[in-house]
Design a protein that fits this description.
Layout: E1 12-18, E2 23-31, E3 37-38, E4 41-44, H1 49-66, E5 71-78, H2 85-98, E6 107-108, H3 117-127, E7 141-145, E8 148-151, H4 159-174, E9 183-187, H5 191-202, E10 206-212, E11 215-218, H6 225-233, E12 269-271, H7 273-277, E13 283-286, E14 305-307, H8 316-324, E15 328-330, H9 332-335, H10 338-347, H11 352-377, H12 381-399
Helix pairs in contact: 1-12, 2-3, 4-5, 4-10, 4-11, 10-11, 11-12
Length: 404
């Protein structure tokens, strides 16, 4: 595809290939005016350079809006679906060695889809620098002086999902909803979805539907986190939730013309993807992969608020269309900035407790700033957030004499 360039970047677009093992990967360093490019490594069978470029630009705005000294970047490794643990490590470390000259001065890795603390340890070990990646295991430490040490703050601590919950709370308040008792549907039950569920439940929100790559479950009275955790531990789908059976053909869960889907509250039910997105919930949280809200299902959306836990869960034209319909949308690089704030905390050697305090403070501040101005100006929140982020990046770009 043709690379689109503008005054912000991208500064580097790399494609690497290891013919010995078949590893193919991409690195896009979009803008480093604020600091080294920061963004995770996406590891999926179908990751593309275009996807990585879109994500890298999102990271530029996210880091600027979060107020941390990182630029924007992203990486991707084409990871076969059924790859062995041993071969996955070979792919990750081959990729790390291929881009070593950029790390960590120009790029700092982090977790993303199908990558976590173990992969970040592999990456840092291959590069030979503890600061090459964040999201590393808690027991992966370096000495920092007299009896001091800095350790990894793994993605598995749930900083992104924690931040998504904080963003949802602020958005609900601004929209005139009480988070206590608000109905929530979470699309995706990986790291982001799991912790968004946990922290929203602690706020007394009612999570009525959850989905994963194998199906979805709905319970009007609210799903039980413990049961979902047991299913995940057993490597089962959330669709295996007790009682979640498809109705008989005469009771198919199909909304009548112009009506939203309303299953009964007595028993959990399995839902199709179309049924999931048609649920009339207060808050919908897409928390998995790219473009899950698309041309096929956008007209079925009935949520009052969408909090984008995933990166680019829909294209901007669809987002604008939903905004015009009156749906409140917290953009991805506002809602899910908790992960990169945690990355900064790890880079600085902070404790988990200090990290969570920082995430809460920065996510709530950014969400409130963006959403209140959106209401005041009657404009799409993404436009507001992007303008704020661009202003901060442009200010720094004026200060530097050269890029390279």
């Amino acid at each position: 595809m043709e690379i689109t360039k503008d005054k912000f970047g991208p500064e580097y677009v790399l494609e690497v290939y290891d013919p010995h093992i078949g590893m193919e990967g991409f690195l896009v360093i979009d803008n480093t005016a604020l600091g080294p490019g920061k963004g995770g490594i996406r590891m999926t069978p179908n990751v593309t350079k275009e996807e990585v470029m879109r994500l890298a630009r999102t990271m530029t705005w996210k880091n600027a809006l979060a107020g941390i000294p990182f630029g924007g970047a992203k990486a991707g490794i084409v990871m076969p679906k059924d790859i062995s643990h041993e071969d996955k490590k070979k792919f990750v470390q081959s990729f790390a060695r291929a881009i070593r000259s950029f790390v960590p001065e120009k790029y700092i890795a982090g977790p993303d889809v199908n990558s976590g603390e173990e992969e970040m340890r592999w990456f840092a070990e291959a590069v030979g620098d503890w600061k090459a990646a964040t999201g590393k295991p808690a027991d992966f430490c370096i000495a920092t002086g007299e009896a001091g040490k800095s350790c990894g703050l793994p993605h598995e601590l749930g900083s992104t999902g924690f931040g998504v919950a904080q963003a949802a709370k602020v958005a609900a308040e601004i929209a005139g909803l009480n988070i206590k008792g608000a109905t929530v549907a979470i699309e995706g039950f990986g790291n982001v979805g799991v912790f968004a569920f946990k922290h929203l439940e602690e706020m007394s929100a009612k999570i009525v539907a959850v989905s994963d790559s194998r199906g979805a479950a709905y319970l009007e009275s609210g799903l039980d986190e413990k049961i979902l955790h047991e299913l995940k531990t057993a490597k089962k789908s959330v669709a295996d939730y007790p009682g979640a059976l498809r109705p008989s053909s005469g009771q198919a869960l199909r909304p009548s013309s112009g009506q939203a889907l309303r299953p009964s509250s007595g028993q959990a039910k399995k839902l199709t993807s179309d049924e999931f997105f048609a649920l009339p919930v207060d808050i919908l949280i897409p928390a998995a992969v790219t473009d899950v809200i698309n041309e096929k299902n956008k007209d079925k959306i009935r949520a009052k608020i969408i909090v984008e836990g995933a990166n680019i869960p829909m294209r901007e034209n669809i987002e604008k269309e939903l905004f015009v319909r009156g749906i409140v949308i917290v953009p991805d690089f506002v809602a899910n900035m908790g992960g990169v704030i945690s990355s900064y905390a790890e880079y600085e050697g902070y404790s988990p407790e200090k990290m969570f305090e920082l995430v809460k403070e920065k996510v709530m501040k950014a969400t409130r700033e963006v959403m209140e101005k959106s209401i005041e100006d009657k404009r799409n929140p993404r436009e507001i957030a992007t303008e704020l982020a661009k202003g901060r990046v442009e200010s720094k770009m004026k200060d530097r004499k050269t890029v390279f």
